[in-house]
Amino acid sequence: MANVVVVGSQWGDEGKGKIVDWLSEQADIVVRFQGGHNAGHTLVIDGTTYKLSLLPSGIVRPGKLSVIGNGVVLDPRALVEEITRLTGQGVTISRDVLRIADNVTLILPLHRELDALRESGAAGTRIGTTKRGIGPAYEDKVGRRAIRLMDLAEPAALPAKIDRLLAHHNALRRGLDLPPIAAAELTDELLALAPQVLPYMDRVWALLDDHRRAGSRILFEGAQGALLDVDHGTYPFVTSSNTVAGGAATGSGLGPTAIGYVLGIAKAYTTRVGEGPFPTELFDDIGRRIGERGREFGTVTGRPRRCGWFDAVIVRQTVKTSGITGIALTKLDILDGFDEIKVCVRYRLDGQEIDYLPAGQGAQARVEPIYETIPGWSQSSAGARSWADLPAQAIKYVRWIEELIGCPVTLLSTSPERDDTILVQNPFEA
């Protein structure tokens, strides 16, 4: 029985919500291991839509334990608001179903303000973030001056930690012509939130190890996609954490031997939100048609997503950097009705053909896609639940993708409905 890590194998927004929800029904524990409330899952269960941006997807299923791991950066105010919203939808949230790592880093108001200022263009390169303070919070974590959840449980020691943090931030703010932050005000704000978040605090590394040894099924879910990984993504147009599958170990406190199966999620085409390179991006009617049919708008921000053909180069690369065992291919039905479908199989860089995405920012901006074309299909694949329900040409397309990325498609999604899924191999039973 394998514990499963789910990762996006493109730039995020691959349709992880439906797949994670399906897997979470079989899991005992669902762990969020990185990111903040800048990415989300949309779950539809029994006709009710739940939009999650921080809480693990298991939270909407009774009897599951949801865990926010140490690799996450936690905005306590956003957490309280999300809990309140879900409670209003009838979801019961208590310590019985939610635990948060005691060593998780907190996102503070000053992080949000700094993030927004940078994205305005007034202080550095515009990355296209959601302005929720995720990047600046990770900076403080790595700079060893962060406020962590456990610090709220020690009110006597908190002011000294905040003074150390503000020694950095107030100097930065003076350089940006911003007023300094009063330590007492920030301390009071955090201590006011403490009673609402501390009941969920736990030693998550020990909790998960106990459950693993007892045979519990653990599902690790990340946010964003592997091409937004701070090391392996399209730097600097990335998030500030490790989104590849290896981050599940460091972001939860479990060793890598606890991970058995890595499921990569990929759309049958490609999308991206925010700035940065996108070799197969389409600026024509086909790109607009894909976006409209796929309802390509961000779960958290509502921003329209950039759309393009499937890029086998980046998915093939992600299969390697995340050690992906099998691919869940989503939104195949969006390609119904196209006369022909293109797939990027290689790039051309400065006159030479290459089979990888280069690491350099300039090179990433210069690569040109090399396409191969396959005939499309006129019949509908929407709602298909077996291979026999699919148009023959759609099956050829799936097999072609498998060959190009060097990884099997073990699950195929043909609509947002969770039952409209073709299962080849259950990751938990691999």
From TrEMBL:
<feature type="binding site">
    <location>
        <begin position="299"/>
        <end position="305"/>
    </location>
    <ligand>
        <name>substrate</name>
    </ligand>
</feature>
<dbReference type="InterPro" id="IPR042110">
    <property type="entry name" value="Adenylosuccinate_synth_dom2"/>
</dbReference>
<feature type="binding site" description="in other chain">
    <location>
        <position position="130"/>
    </location>
    <ligand>
        <name>IMP</name>
    </ligand>
</feature>
<keyword id="KW-0460">Magnesium</keyword>
<feature type="binding site">
    <location>
        <begin position="413"/>
        <end position="415"/>
    </location>
    <ligand>
        <name>GTP</name>
    </ligand>
</feature>
<keyword id="KW-0342">GTP-binding</keyword>
<feature type="binding site">
    <location>
        <position position="40"/>
    </location>
    <ligand>
        <name>Mg(2+)</name>
    </ligand>
</feature>
<dbReference type="GO" id="GO:0046040">
    <property type="term" value="P:IMP metabolic process"/>
</dbReference>
<feature type="binding site" description="in other chain">
    <location>
        <begin position="38"/>
        <end position="41"/>
    </location>
    <ligand>
        <name>IMP</name>
    </ligand>
</feature>
<feature type="binding site" description="in other chain">
    <location>
        <begin position="13"/>
        <end position="16"/>
    </location>
    <ligand>
        <name>IMP</name>
    </ligand>
</feature>
<feature type="binding site" description="in other chain">
    <location>
        <position position="303"/>
    </location>
    <ligand>
        <name>IMP</name>
    </ligand>
</feature>
<feature type="binding site" description="in other chain">
    <location>
        <position position="224"/>
    </location>
    <ligand>
        <name>IMP</name>
    </ligand>
</feature>
<dbReference type="InterPro" id="IPR033128">
    <property type="entry name" value="Adenylosuccin_syn_Lys_AS"/>
</dbReference>
<keyword id="KW-0658">Purine biosynthesis</keyword>
<feature type="active site">
    <location>
        <position position="141"/>
    </location>
</feature>
<feature type="active site" description="Proton acceptor">
    <location>
        <position position="13"/>
    </location>
</feature>
<dbReference type="GO" id="GO:0005737">
    <property type="term" value="C:cytoplasm"/>
</dbReference>
<dbReference type="InterPro" id="IPR027417">
    <property type="entry name" value="P-loop_NTPase"/>
</dbReference>
<keyword id="KW-0436">Ligase</keyword>
<comment type="similarity">
    <text>Belongs to the adenylosuccinate synthetase family.</text>
</comment>
<feature type="binding site">
    <location>
        <begin position="12"/>
        <end position="18"/>
    </location>
    <ligand>
        <name>GTP</name>
    </ligand>
</feature>
<dbReference type="InterPro" id="IPR001114">
    <property type="entry name" value="Adenylosuccinate_synthetase"/>
</dbReference>
<feature type="binding site">
    <location>
        <position position="13"/>
    </location>
    <ligand>
        <name>Mg(2+)</name>
    </ligand>
</feature>
<dbReference type="GO" id="GO:0004019">
    <property type="term" value="F:adenylosuccinate synthase activity"/>
</dbReference>
<feature type="binding site">
    <location>
        <begin position="40"/>
        <end position="42"/>
    </location>
    <ligand>
        <name>GTP</name>
    </ligand>
</feature>
<dbReference type="InterPro" id="IPR042111">
    <property type="entry name" value="Adenylosuccinate_synth_dom3"/>
</dbReference>
<feature type="binding site">
    <location>
        <begin position="331"/>
        <end position="333"/>
    </location>
    <ligand>
        <name>GTP</name>
    </ligand>
</feature>
<comment type="subunit">
    <text>Homodimer.</text>
</comment>
<keyword id="KW-0547">Nucleotide-binding</keyword>
<dbReference type="InterPro" id="IPR042109">
    <property type="entry name" value="Adenylosuccinate_synth_dom1"/>
</dbReference>
<feature type="active site" description="Proton donor">
    <location>
        <position position="41"/>
    </location>
</feature>
<feature type="binding site">
    <location>
        <position position="144"/>
    </location>
    <ligand>
        <name>IMP</name>
    </ligand>
</feature>
<dbReference type="GO" id="GO:0044208">
    <property type="term" value="P:'de novo' AMP biosynthetic process"/>
</dbReference>
<protein>
    <recommendedName>
        <fullName>Adenylosuccinate synthetase</fullName>
        <ecNumber>6.3.4.4</ecNumber>
    </recommendedName>
</protein>
<comment type="function">
    <text>Plays an important role in the de novo pathway of purine nucleotide biosynthesis. Catalyzes the first committed step in the biosynthesis of AMP from IMP.</text>
</comment>
<dbReference type="Pfam" id="PF00709">
    <property type="entry name" value="Adenylsucc_synt"/>
</dbReference>
<feature type="binding site">
    <location>
        <position position="305"/>
    </location>
    <ligand>
        <name>GTP</name>
    </ligand>
</feature>
<keyword id="KW-0479">Metal-binding</keyword>
<keyword id="KW-0963">Cytoplasm</keyword>
<dbReference type="GO" id="GO:0005525">
    <property type="term" value="F:GTP binding"/>
</dbReference>
<comment type="pathway">
    <text>Purine metabolism; AMP biosynthesis via de novo pathway; AMP from IMP: step 1/2.</text>
</comment>
<dbReference type="GO" id="GO:0000287">
    <property type="term" value="F:magnesium ion binding"/>
</dbReference>
